[in-house]
Amino acid sequence: xxxxxxxxxxxxxxxxxxxxxxxxxxxxxxxxxxxxxxxxxxxxxxxxxxxxxxxxxxxxxxxxxxxxxxxxxxxxxxxxxxxxxxxxxxxxxxxxxxxxxxxxxxxxxxxxxxxxxxxxxxxxxxxxxxxxxxxxxxxxxxxxxxxxxxxxxxxxxxxxxxxxxxxxxxxxxxxxxxxxxxxxxxxxxxxxxxxxxxxxxxxxxxxxxxxxxxxxxxxxxxxxxxxxxxxxxxxxxxxxxxxxxxxxxxxxxxxxxxxxxxxxxxxxxxxxxxxxxxxxxxxxxxxxxxxxxxxxxxxxxxxxxxxxxxxxxxxxxxxxxxx
Length: 323
Known about the structure:
Strand order of the largest sheet: 1-2
Low-confidence stretches: 152-168
């Protein structure tokens, strides 16, 4: 039954990823906002909700190893496997906004997490610092989005006039229009992602617990990979459709959400003292953030061979962890 529900959860996640990507791309085009901004905000927030729920529940239940391991494992999964797979599917173009603003924030957030975990405790004061950095990042991102929207205001209003709905449509037509409405597809996609991930993670953890795996390893592997299923599905679908900026923005935004917001909120609720997160785990997290930044500078493109390097590195890390 666990295996059956794991398969069902994956199917729901994939369908939700398609709805979310379609809705987000349509909104980006309608309001003349860049796909990168949409990926960094709406998509990243929605696909990070499983991590938020899992980490909060783990911390409240007194399993700090699982809460922190979930975020560390999720970010390692995001950087190495998701970016690696997406780059192998389609070379990913990296805009200057990502290089100058988003990637430095992600790198600083990673260094901050490693520094705070050196003493083995993530306190409420440190969590508040992380939340302050997250709010600063969101301010810069949304400010940039508003500037882009203001520059293209005439086009946006013209589009609005042309797409006025008819008042004489039938009920079926109205339902179809609602389904095709980008905001509705985003909400539906987010719901499918959260429900599908919850089903997947719950039964995956049940299966792993039966095998006697430690909390830290469960957090880094099962929970890290399971809660990253929305990011994987959304980014792969975006890459297949050629929306590589959204795929990369989704990963960068999710990494920032995971560290700054999720661990920030979780540690404010209850201070975390993880014992099972090793130096190898934190070193791999640092190496991933460094490689992502470095590869983005090379011709402002994430090439297929760079994706292969990231994917192979993930395989090596998992081998060392499980061994």
